[in-house]
Predict the 3D structure of the following.
Amino acid sequence: MPEVAVDLRDVWVFYNGLPALEEVNLEIQTGKYVGVLGPNGAGKSTLLKVILGLLVPARGQVRVYGEIPQKLRHRGEVVGYLPQRPLNNPHFPVSVLDVVLMGRYGRVGLVRRPSLRDREIALMNLERVGIPHLAGRTIGEVSGGEQQRVFIARALCVEPRLLVLDEPTVSLDACAQDEVFEMVNRLKDELQLTVLMVSHDIGGVARHVDDIVCINRRIHVHQAPPIGRLGLESAFGCSVEYLFHGEIPHRVVKVHDD
Amino acid sequence: MTELLSMGFLQRALLAGIMVSLLCGVLSVFVILRRMAFIGVGVSHSAFGGVALGFLLAVDPLWTGIGFAVLVALAIEWVQTHSRVEEDTAIGIFFAASMALGLVFLHLSRTYNVDVFGFLFGNILAIGQKQLVEILVVATVVLAVTLAFYKELVFLSFDEEMAWVSGVPVRALRYLFLVMLALVIITSIYLVGIILVAALLVIPGATAQNLTGHIRGMIITSAGVAVGGAVGGISLSCLLDFPTGATIVLLLSLVYLATIMVPRLHSHK
């Protein structure tokens, strides 16, 4: 197994001619739990999309476990993904178990039907996130926190090596947020995952992750001494609230210069 | 085949009606879940341009209609993914332009005849053996493809990004679905005509959504509602001497209105 899970070199992304990511270099070792912080419009989701292969950068090289993401996706077994708004249509008529089973589809392959074994794996992952009793409920009926667990279970069904979570705690109350962080922490150890999590929640991220990547539109990620107020403030461009203490290991960030 | 030949017009109409409505009922669920109701309207109206082109070139309007509808469906998708135009804007433009083209083609061909009226409003009672075979072929192919890619179509409708990341050929399936939609629309034209075909792709699925909470049940209900509407509509139209397509659509609309009450009853219990 290669050491490096995610490797971005000199990646540039433009939206309508304006740079969304500029000269991004990022290396994530396998087994790390990495938090991505940054203000709205800083390119956090763009960064994830590049790593997932949903966006092809205008320039630069993207490798996930040594492969181009657009190729890697066809294996359907490396990346587990939790989108920012996974439930577009709250009235979509599928059960919780159906949704979790979707995580198996990449491995099942085109046209073929999920087997009994796939179903067992889906149920096992529902147990893993603590909601096996909800398997038969319609997805729109369960609470926001429970939905997040459902979608994490779906991502785990891929049996991934890399788990990518886009704002998993957004729109959850403080309690549910903490539960998600704790759960991801536990799952990471249990399943030996590499985790990449985008979040607004500086405190939550800082308490749990190994590394922090701070980004803001014009960024340049590099190794740096322990994060301090200055580092975060320069990424966010405003004062930030601190909900944690102690020193957080991290990598950051060149100040964006406009 | 000999049985098909010996059939009376009413039996042919019923058989065609059952096949077309079954097909529309199944696709309708995906149209509703993917919020594509307006695409149905756009593509069916675009077919008018193709049908008129058939009259102008003196070839079977079915083929020019299929070609035109598929082309417009793909163009809508392409414009939407390759430019900043929103989907409903793209549909609005293509649909109006195709109808305008249709009128110009008709003007040039100088055939303001009954056939055109039949294409606009359907004329299932005049359906021939050839059309019956065409419908059978389209129904078999589209149902087989839908069944084969059922799991992917549901995944795609539910969460396109995740489907893509899982290796599902999202773009190919989107185009495939549009082509199937165009085929079904063209074959449905005999039943209810260009103007009303979108109703057959929207109302059964919407009705089923009111009645069931699970997608498999929704597909079965939707197909049932569509077939019931077609058979009931054809029978009623014979009894009342009403236009067939319109009767089917009105019957389906009434059923839909009745089912709006169902979730309310549930939530008040």
User: Anything to note?
Assistant: The two ends of chain A are 41 Å apart (CA to CA).
